[in-house]
Write a structure and sequence with these properties.
Layout: H1 7-10, H2 23-34, E1 41-45, H3 52-64, H4 79-85, E2 92-96, H5 103-114, E3 123-128, H6 135-146, E4 152-158, H7 166-169, E5 173-176, H8 182-195, E6 199-200, H9 202-212, H10 216-230, E7 233-234, H11 236-243, H12 248-259, H13 263-275, H14 280-297, H15 310-322, H16 325-342, H17 348-365
Parallel strand pairs: 1-4, 1-5, 2-3, 3-4, 6-7
Helix pairs in contact: 2-3, 5-6, 8-9, 9-10, 9-11, 12-13, 12-14, 12-15, 12-17, 13-17, 14-15, 14-16, 16-17
The structure holds zinc ion.
Pfam families: DNA_pol3_delta2 (PF13177), DNA_pol3_gamma3 (PF12169), DNAX_ATPase_lid (PF22608)
Family: Belongs to the DnaX/STICHEL family.
Enzyme class: transferase
Length: 367
């Protein structure tokens, strides 16, 4: 593909405003900047790909901007902002503790910290994956953290907060980043697709968002992968084929047949799934998720736990209307038992078939 820029890089947020799904954090940071109440050390915790490093960079740019907007965003026009935007600012230093975790690495950093910045007010030190520092390195760093020079601000980022020693924790202002929801990822992907003139079915974006498991970076790289594979017109089918995801239509059909007590058709659908090369264990855990999703649709409050959007949501709701809760609970229990016995079973196919037959007979008993 010509001039294809990786979306994760191209659509990296460059202002607090554009950070997805971390409004309370960006709000607090903006307020701190506005009221000039900056701490010397911040700890950004949370799963991977949710915007920790991105926020750290935006923060570094904003506190060095000489011409903040009324909304406390960087102006993107002053010398400092321009330097930041072209990655040539000397006010930001990034250290990846995953690969630079020795005492020497930290010494080099702390030597640097003493030197005041040539331009701008603050030198920001971002230490990514800070939990990877060796304990000796942690101790060497602690001294600097206890008495930081006026111009130095540390932003420590970690996916594993529990591994950070209490003496570090107590010296940092802590921010917990949320996992990003499927709906928020889908909305952002829609925006990226539109900006790239890529036409994509919303059900497909939903699958990408689910696969990304809360990480925007992963969602964007999956999106790129599919664009490079399928071009600028992407269907739901393209997405599931590319990601090797079982079409949720199978599950809708199965539940319909369960409710009709149609054992023959149920077994044929399962056979079809296996013939498409899908793994039995994935299938059975997928069935459990599907039953769970229908169950949450039966209640006006829990329906918000359903992480799908658009047309598919209506399909879940429709199936929830015809399946009663007793059936769903019993079916879930059978699917769950099957899931647990799967690994030790000698005849995995039969194990699943038996579970499916039992589920297909559930409503029979009650007639
Ligand atoms: Zn500026």
């Amino acid at each position: 593909m010509e001039n294809f820029i990786v979306s994760a890089r191209k659509y990296r947020p460059d202002s607090f405003e554009t950070v997805v799904a971390q409004a309370s954090i960006t709000g607090t940071l903006k307020n701190a900047i506005k009221s000039k109440q900056l701490a010397h050390a911040y700890l950004f915790c949370g799963p991977r790909g949710v915007g920790k490093t991105t926020c750290a960079r935006i923060f570094a740019k904003t506190i060095n901007c000489t011409n903040l907007t009324p909304d406390t965003e960087a102006c993107n026009e002053c010398e400092s902002c321009k330097a930041f935007n072209t990655s040539r600012s000397f006010n930001i230093h990034e250290l990846d503790a995953a690969s630079n975790n020795s005492v020497d690495d930290i010494r080099t950093l702390t030597d640097q910290v003493r030197v005041p910045p040539q331009m701008g007010k603050y030198s920001v030190y971002i230490i990514d994956e800070v939990h990877m520092l060796s304990s000796a390195a942690f101790n060497a760093f602690l001294k600097t953290l206890e008495e930081p020079p006026k111009h130095a601000i540390f932003i420590l980022a970690t996916t594993e907060k529990h591994k950070i020693i209490p003496t570090i924790l107590s010296r940092c202002q802590i921010f917990d980043f949320n996992r990003i929801g499927v709906a928020e990822i889908t909305t952002h992907l829609e925006y990226v697709a539109k900006s790239e003139s890529v036409e994509v079915e919303s059900a497909g974006l939903n699958i990408i968002a689910q696969k990304a498991d809360g990480a925007m970076r992963d969602a964007l790289s999956i999106f790129d992968q599919i664009v490079s594979f399928s071009g600028k017109k992407i269907t739901y089918q393209d997405v599931i084929t590319n990601l090797n995801v079982l079409d949720y239509d199978y599950y809708f059909r199965l539940v319909d047949e369960f409710l009709k007590n149609n054992v023959t058709e149920v077994l044929m659908i399962f056979n079809d799934i296996l013939n498409h090369g899908f793994d039995g264990h994935h299938f059975i855990t997928g069935l459990s998720s599907h039953l769970r999703d229908i169950l949450v649709c039966k209640d006006a409050v829990t329906v918000q736990l359903l992480e799908v959007g658009g047309d598919i949501k209506e399909k879940y709701k429709a199936q929830a209307m015809i399946a009663n809760s007793d059936f769903l609970l019993e079916a879930l229990q059978i699917a769950n038992e099957c899931d647990m016995s799967y690994k030790v079973s000698q005849n995995k196919r039969l194990l699943i078939e038996l579970a499916l037959i039992r589920i297909a007979q559930l409503t029979l008993k009650k007639k």
